[in-house]
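Workshop exercise sheet. Pairs work together: one partner reads the sequence aloud, the other fills in the structure field after running the prediction. Swap roles for the next sheet.
Pair: D.N. / O.F.
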Amino acid sequence: MPTVHTPLRLIQRYIEYVPQADVLCVPRNLRGIYVLYRREKARGNQKRDHYNVVYVGMARQGGIRPRLRSHSKGKKAKWTHFSIFEVWPNISDGEIAELEGLFRHLFRYDAIASGLNKQRGYRALRKQPKVTLRPLRRRRGHKSSTDAT
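Structure field:
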């Protein structure tokens, strides 16, 4: 099999905004991250439809297809489309979990996306050291938002 050069280290292949009706067309045993969306049709002067994230999930050994099938049974009315981001074979299950956790953490305060996600953050990320911001050096005559008025 010929070697395919790709610029991404984690993601091997992807497909986006697939209708829920096509879940059974997903190949078996894909590992990676998937996203469920709810489509909102364009209204008024909007030129295109919007796809709001309602859930971010991961699949390891069992594959993405069974995960999507289970979501289409229990949460069918809450989502209309999905995207898949398949990882390379050398990506560990722990790395997949870290990716999912990061995305879940990013969407934890989103009014739509957090509705289906029971886990609202990523505990391992909260244990990591935080970046310390340095104070800005102000130029003369400029006030910052922290200056008293």
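Discussion prompt: The chain has a mean pLDDT of 83. What would you look at next?
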